[in-house]
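Let us practice reading a record.
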Amino acid sequence: MSVSSLTEERFISITTYKRDGSTASTAVWVMSDDERRLLVRTGAQTWKAKRIRRDPRVLVAASSASGKEKGPQIPGKARFLDPSEGPLVEQLADRKYGFLKKLSDGSIRLTSMIKRKQPEFVYLEITDRDEAGAEAGQQQV
């Protein structure tokens, strides 16, 4: 099975690896621009982003919004996209999630006003692990 089988899903569970080798999973929105790679937006300081900076190996699976997996986990490799690719991911999310994305962005803006801090996002590309050709633990920037 390939990560490309998840391009039409509304949510995926992304599992990342902690320093001690244990795993942590969370549900995320998923987009694709080419039906091969998965694209994800997440907060720059989230634990998943921190773990991926250290170890790009991930497991992905179709899931509910709450993260309950609906299918098998597929090994993948996450890579941080250049910030210049952020607008593409945002546009794809706007198209796929519509009003829900607008509602989410409004909530994020409100929270950032209260905290007086601009939200920082990073954008991830997830591809099949064997396609990626990188060893576990290699940092991708």
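A brief commentary: The chain has one domain: 3-89+119-132.
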